[in-house]
Amino acid sequence: QVSPGLRTPRLPVWLCSLSGRHSVLFGTDSQLLSDWKAERIFHLYFYSGQQEQTQTAHLTIDTHSHHWEEAQREGPCSSGRRRPALEMAIRTKWAGATVSWNGTDPFF
């Protein structure tokens, strides 16, 4: 029998398989599970367990930003439309969201 805590988590947790590697994306705000208003700007954490990741990545997700705001933040040497697989996975839940890596170099 599955524990009720596993069927209805108290905090948002997603298990991910990105580029053939397993990882976890999680939040520490339980409001993300029950209040759609909490999905405006919120924080998620990503951990892959891979040797090259020395600390959990802290991401800020903004679901109400505009595509032209994101374009202004990109530098002249940016890779254009290419995004890390993790950002694309986040956008399957929150279409059009911008993801700030808060100083961490994007990976995956």
TrEMBL record:
Pfam families per UniProt: MINDY-3_4_CD
Gene Ontology MF terms: cysteine-type deubiquitinase activity; K48-linked deubiquitinase activity
Catalytic activity: Thiol-dependent hydrolysis of ester, thioester, amide, peptide and isopeptide bonds formed by the C-terminal Gly of ubiquitin (a 76-residue protein attached to proteins as an intracellular targeting signal)
Keyword Protease part of the UniProt annotation: yes
Superkingdom classification of source: Eukaryota
Protein known as: Ubiquitin carboxyl-terminal hydrolase MINDY
Gene (name only): Mindy4b_0
Domain Deubiquitinating enzyme MINDY-3/4 conserved: 5-103
Purpose of the protein: Hydrolase that can remove 'Lys-48'-linked conjugated ubiquitin from proteins.
UniProt EC number: 3.4.19.12
InterPro entries, alphabetized: MINDY-3/4_CD (IPR025257), MINY3/4 (IPR039785)
Keywords: Hydrolase, Protease, Thiol protease, Ubl conjugation pathway
Lineage: Eukaryota, Metazoa, Chordata, Craniata, Vertebrata
Similarity comment: Belongs to the MINDY deubiquitinase family. FAM188 subfamily.
